[in-house]
Amino acid sequence: MTPHNEAAAGDYAPTVLLSGDPLRSEWIAETFLEDARCVNRIRGALGYTGSYQGMPVSVQTTGIGIPSLSIYVHELLETYGARVLFRVGTCGGLQDHVRIRDLVISQAAATDSGAEGESFGAYRFAPAPDLGLLSAAAEEARKSGVRHHIGSTASSDVFYHSAGDERYRPLRAHGLLAVDMETSGLYTLASRFGARALSICMGVDNVFTGESIAEAERQAVFRPMIELALATACGVS
């Protein structure tokens, strides 16, 4: 038990799917997991544990942004023994070919976050996923035929920025695929704890083309993202 999580030791599986939205966490548990039970309700950050094709799997809500995600991921890794983490969230495309409903698998994550402070001294840490998870997800995505992209992404601490979308032009010019608010923090913590992590996000809008998915549609289109994460987890377990 922690200040943010009422789960007991052993309540979380080694493999955890991370969703920013508690309603998405609930939907994942009810739709994909067998015998799912709720293990955390503190602050509405719902956590569930069940099984998928016989493999224990948990789902944990992380909230929005690196500071919030870092609390839950740190505790999952340090207190609850999680070892394999998948972010299953949303992102905004930065390239014209990254369309809504496409999956983006992050192979590296830049950030404007100051959450790490002076952790790395004069260095700028380059957060990256576990190569085994990345390779397995790429193969699963290819086999399934789901439209996807693999490349570098960015994680921002700021949603409503005074500079607007112009701040993303240098990222776009350097080929970054999409922007979210969490991936960089996940990869950094996984590296610190010697765990495995991968971020798989669905494009729900595009910063430069203006395409977007209506909020009411979003839960319904997430199935391919969750299926890819779970298939990858089963393949590497």
UniProtKB/TrEMBL annotation:
Sequence ranges assigned to domain Nucleoside phosphorylase in this UniProt record: 16-209
Binding of phosphate, residues: G20, R24, R43, R87, V88, G89, T90
GO-annotated cellular components: cytosol
Site (Important for catalytic activity): R218
Signal peptide range: none
PROSITE patterns recorded: PNP_UDP_1 (PS01232)
GO process annotations (BP): purine nucleoside catabolic process
Entry protein name: Purine nucleoside phosphorylase DeoD-type
Protein source organism: Aquibium oceanicum
